[in-house]
């Protein structure tokens, strides 16, 4: 078994001080199970301390490290060198920031700008209903929860938004839609009207072209397109 | 360049929270719920609050349901006290255990997607160390949201703060606390995106900056857990309590450090050394793989130290193997699918066919900024610093003592988050004046100027890696006077060498390199206090184990207070352990004396 690879990373860089964009190439010798975040760190430690990238949990749970690798949005902390070589059939990788918000430096984008779309759909219960069970909690059957629980697993990595073929300037985006859909289906939410208005307004689900690119790239394996389709069919209203 | 190191703007608010993880957000949500319209600012190092470390917590949170006929808060208190190896503060233990269920309802009513039983009620599961009837048998006490409980807490409390109008400063880093006449007036913060320093003045400042895991080479903690909150407090001349109490999880996946759940051992996984020998039988002949966490961690570490570990050129991190190959397909697929998928995804191994590399991994820091039961920060003489609070993993009100039970940490975030908020609300209401311009910020400019102007041939990355390796080899699961003395010398040298580490890029906007340099100083300071406090504590207690003093000693029945005004010159003070449950003499009070921690 081959244990090291000679990898070339071609990274799109941006320097805000000079307002300059360029592509810089780095060669790294990489162990087969190194992740792409490990490669970035190795570049920082050994070649170029200025290369800037984002990550937090580094095990696929927070959505901070998403980038495009050879055009595909994914989590850099989940991509092993060995798997990248096998799936892209090359040892050269072109890495760019996600195209969903302004770039701050190198691979880091302005997450505030990206999240503004999620904030708009109000990712919380607007008007809580009174608890149903005597001990102060709500009673929600597992079957009822099952209908929307997958949509609650979204980590807002914006990979789906980056892959989406709809026009980013108008569509709120697949992950923002998921956040709205969750609360429409949540029996504890008393304010359904406002929610449905958001989902069906001019920046809502009807902007979706059903390309299913979102489902294809979601690192959490959420069938995003399925929820979009349910919303389009009006199959998400409960309680 | 130095012109950029001045304060760009001053902003005012009622409450400043340094951090936007679980503890910070629960606290912020409560303040805004009770005082609508209060100006609450929360700073976070990460790009968005949701990216904070709390989002990765998996297992669940312990809370006694008052309607549960089999469980009672007193049992939870006992388990926590025993788990802490008799070093938790009992007033805090009582407070948290008794308010736990109320906080579960807070989360549930605000939309957390807890897992449910068939009737639609909250499901509960068992967890290590949680028992009923003072150790009689394990108990269903942990509520959970599948294997993403921390994410549920984060999404819920972030949503609540957003709904009620908190102001977030993302990628904004607190770099100096503003202290004057034993009072805190806010902090200086570095806005990473813009590359600017701002001064934030507040009636109340709450430190909720999370853990310090990056001190060690192999850790389950996120990249930003560099102990900033502890360093800020040390730099302000205040002490850190019990820094030597560091928990290691026995089975972190090598090399990403990701946690491989204890389930692997309970379903029959066997730990093996380089020669494929099943070694647990030599350390715990009866319990073997099922012995408690700290014991298993020590066994693995011993194998590695005695040369029976494995080193893989992919990461050069010595480890042992957990062998799961003999388990049935059914076990792999039904009982451990999650962890199996971690091995697949991160080390490309198939648990059915391959040996899986694991080693003890830094997990949790029980010690931290000393506070009373209201989260008010105390100095070395146990006097409260006005307007300064701490909550969450960076704080030590001391719920966990020297060893934390699983599921007790995220419980602490939400219970203490709420309790601290109540105290802060009182202060904000009772304090008519906001801090004035005399809170200046005395150190940050010189400090950052030194980073930017440094010349020499040292590398920040290399120094950080050396420090982390030193701590992992010399001050982790096993500690001896010799190993810790070596570590302390090494840390002194690294601290000195760091002054000769130049930056390649000197622009301030988005400068990650500059931040790494600043973090290195924080890490070194935290590492130094851990090492010195551990050297001082000539006994073994909870997660702190000394080869040369393997037994718990009554002479050390106190909390360590560690102060450091010059790097390396650590002063050690003491704080008494609160034994109010024992002293109250009520029913079962004898369970809260100094008891043996045997399971
Ligand atoms: C893999 C894993 C699983 C776990 N599972 C469980 C579990 O099942 N049950 C349990 O009870 N516990 C668990 N824990 C422990 C628990 O998750 C943590 O102790 C807890 O989340 C800490 O929360 P916090 O709010 O104190 O800090 P964090 O969530 O770490 O938040 C800290 C915040 O402070 C910010 N910050 C830090 N420094 C600065 C600075 N200088 N300036 C500005 N902002 C700053 C950070 O950006 C972040 O927003 C687990 C831990 C790990 C690693
Ligand atoms: S739906 Fe999937 S791809 Fe989209 S943001 Fe959420 S986790 Fe990422
Ligand atoms: S760093 Fe958290 S998902 Fe990659």
UniProtKB/TrEMBL annotation, chain A:
Keyword DNA damage: no
Protein name from the UniProt record: Succinate dehydrogenase iron-sulfur subunit
SUPFAM superfamilies registered for this protein in UniProt: 2Fe-2S ferredoxin-like, alpha-helical ferredoxin
Alphabetical list of NCBIfam families matching this protein: dhsB
Annotated family: Belongs to the succinate dehydrogenase/fumarate reductase iron-sulfur protein family.
Cofactor (UniProt): [4Fe-4S] cluster; [3Fe-4S] cluster; [2Fe-2S] cluster
Keyword terms of this UniProt record: 2Fe-2S, 4Fe-4S, Iron, Iron-sulfur, Metal-binding, Oxidoreductase
Residue ranges of every copy of the 4Fe-4S ferredoxin-type domain listed in the record: 145-174
Domain of life per record: Bacteria
From TrEMBL, chain B:
Boundaries of every FAD-dependent oxidoreductase 2 FAD-binding domain copy: 14-410
Protein topology in the membrane: Peripheral membrane protein
InterPro entries: FAD-dep_OxRdtase_2_FAD-bd, FAD/NAD-bd_sf, Fum_R/Succ_DH_flav-like_C_sf, Fum_Rdtase/Succ_DH_flav-like_C, SdhA/FrdA/AprA, Succ_DH/fumarate_Rdtase_cat_sf, Succ_Dhase_FrdA_Gneg
Broad class of where this protein is predominantly found: membrane
Residue span(s) of domain Fumarate reductase/succinate dehydrogenase flavoprotein-like C-terminal: 464-582
Annotated compartments: Membrane
Classification via Pfam families: FAD_binding_2, Succ_DH_flav_C
This protein's UniProt keywords: Electron transport, FAD, Flavoprotein, Membrane, Oxidoreductase, Transport
Alphabetical list of SUPFAM superfamilies matching this protein: FAD/NAD(P)-binding domain, Succinate dehydrogenase/fumarate reductase flavoprotein C-terminal domain, Succinate dehydrogenase/fumarate reductase flavoprotein, catalytic domain
Required co-factors: FAD
Homology family: Belongs to the FAD-dependent oxidoreductase 2 family. FRD/SDH subfamily.
Matches recorded under NCBIfam families: sdhA_frdA_Gneg
Name the UniProt record assigns to this protein: Succinate dehydrogenase flavoprotein subunit
Source lineage: Bacteria, Pseudomonadati, Thermodesulfobacteriota, Desulfobulbia, Desulfobulbales
């Amino acid at each position: 078994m081959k244990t090291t690879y000679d990898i070339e990373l071609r990274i799109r860089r941006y320097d805000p001080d000079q307002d300059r964009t360029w592509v810089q190439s780095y060669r790294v010798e990489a162990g087969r199970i190194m992740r792409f975040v490990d490669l970035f760190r190795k570049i920082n430690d050994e070649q170029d301390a200025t290369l800037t990238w984002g990550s937090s949990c580094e095990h696929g749970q927070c959505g901070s490290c998403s980038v495009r690798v050879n055009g595909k949005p994914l989590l850099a902390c989940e991509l092993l060198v060995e798997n990248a070589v096998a799936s892209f059939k090359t040892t050269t990788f072109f890495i760019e920031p996600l195209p969903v918000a302004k770039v701050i430096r190198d691979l880091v984008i302005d997450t505030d700008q990206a999240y503004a779309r999620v904030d708009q759909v109000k990712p919380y219960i607007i008007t809580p209903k009174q608890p149903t069970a005597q001990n102060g909690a709500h009673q929600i059957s597992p079957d009822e929860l099952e209908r929307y629980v997958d949509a609650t697993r979204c980590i807002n990595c914006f990979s789906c938004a980056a892959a989406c073929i709809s026009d980013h300037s108008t569509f709120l985006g697949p992950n923002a839609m998921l956040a709205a859909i969750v609360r429409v289906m949540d029996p504890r939410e008393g304010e359904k009207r406002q929610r449905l208005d958001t989902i069906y307004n001019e920046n809502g689900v009807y902007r979706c072209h059903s390309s299913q690119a979102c489902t294809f790239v979601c690192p959490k394996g959420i069938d995003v397109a399925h929820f979009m389709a349910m919303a389009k069919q009006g199959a998400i209203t409960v309680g | 360049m130095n012109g950029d190191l001045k304060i760009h703007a001053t902003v005012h608010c009622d409450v400043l929270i340094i951090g936007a993880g679980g503890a910070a957000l629960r606290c912020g949500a409560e303040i805004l719920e009770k005082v609508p319209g209060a100006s609450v600012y929360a700073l976070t190092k990460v790009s968005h609050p949701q990216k904070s470390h709390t989002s990765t917590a998996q297992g669940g949170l312990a809370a006694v349901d008052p309607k549960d006929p089999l469980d009672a808060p007193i049992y939870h208190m006992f388990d926590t006290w025993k788990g802490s190896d008799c070093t938790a503060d009992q007033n805090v233990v009582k407070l948290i255990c008794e308010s736990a269920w109320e906080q579960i309802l807070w989360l549930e009513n605000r939309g957390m997607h807890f897992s449910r039983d068939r009737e639609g009620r909250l499901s509960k599961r068992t967890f290590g160390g949680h028992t009923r009837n003072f150790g009689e048998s394990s108990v269903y006490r942990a509520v959970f949201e599948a294997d993403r409980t921390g994410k549920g807490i984060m999404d819920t409390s972030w949503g609540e703060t957003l709904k009620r109008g908190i102001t977030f400063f993302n990628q904004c880093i607190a770099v100096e606390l503003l202290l004057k006449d034993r009072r805190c007036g806010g902090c200086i913060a570095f806005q990473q995106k813009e590359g600017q320093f701002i001064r934030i003045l507040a009636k109340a400042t709450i430190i909720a900056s999370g853990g310090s895991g990056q001190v060690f080479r192999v850790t389950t903690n996120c990249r930003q857990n560099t102990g900033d909150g502890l360093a800020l407090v040390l730099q302000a001349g205040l002490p850190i309590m019990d820094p030597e109490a560091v928990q290691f999880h026995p089975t972190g996946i090598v090399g990403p450090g990701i946690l491989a759940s204890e389930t692997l051992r309970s379903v029959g996984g066997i730990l093996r050394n380089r020669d494929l020998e099943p070694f647990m039988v030599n350390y715990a002949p009866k319990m073997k793989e099922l012995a408690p966490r700290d014991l298993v961690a020590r066994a693995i570490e011993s194998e590695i130290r005695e040369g029976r570990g494995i080193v893989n050129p992919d990461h050069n991190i010595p480890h042992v193997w957990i062998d799961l190959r003999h388990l049935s397909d059914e076990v792999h697929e039904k009982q451990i699918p999650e962890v199996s998928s971690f091995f697949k995804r991160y080390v490309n191994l198939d648990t059915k066919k391959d040996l899986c590399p694991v080693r003890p991994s830094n997990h949790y820091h029980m010690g931290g900024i000393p506070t009373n039961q209201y989260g008010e920060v105390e100095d070395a003489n146990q006097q409260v610093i006005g307007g300064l609070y701490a909550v969450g993993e960076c704080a030590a009100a001391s719920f966990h003592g020297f060893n934390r039970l699983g599921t007790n940490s995220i419980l602490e975030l939400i219970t203490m988050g709420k309790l601290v908020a109540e105290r802060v609300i009182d202060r904000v209401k009772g304090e008519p004046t906001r801090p004035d311009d005399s809170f200046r910020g005395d150190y940050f400019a010189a400090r950052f100027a030194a980073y930017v102007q440094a010349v020499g041939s040292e590398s920040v990355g290399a120094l950080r890696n050396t420090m982390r390796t030193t701590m992992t080899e010399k001050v982790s699961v096993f500690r001896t006077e010799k190993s810790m003395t070596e570590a302390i010398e090494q840390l002194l040298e690294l601290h000195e060498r760091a002054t000769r580490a130049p930056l390649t890029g000197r622009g301030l906007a988005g400068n990650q390199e500059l931040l790494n340099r600043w973090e290195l100083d924080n890490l070194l300071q935290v590492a130094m206090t851990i090492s010195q406090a551990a050297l001082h504590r000539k006994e073994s207690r909870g997660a702190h184990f000394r080869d040369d003093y393997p037994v718990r000693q009554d002479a050390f029945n106190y909390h360590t207070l560690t102060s450091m005004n010059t790097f390396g010159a650590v002063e050690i003070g003491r704080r008494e352990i609160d034994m109010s449950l024992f002293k109250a003499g009520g029913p079962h009070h004898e369970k809260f004396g100094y008891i043996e921690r045997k399971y």
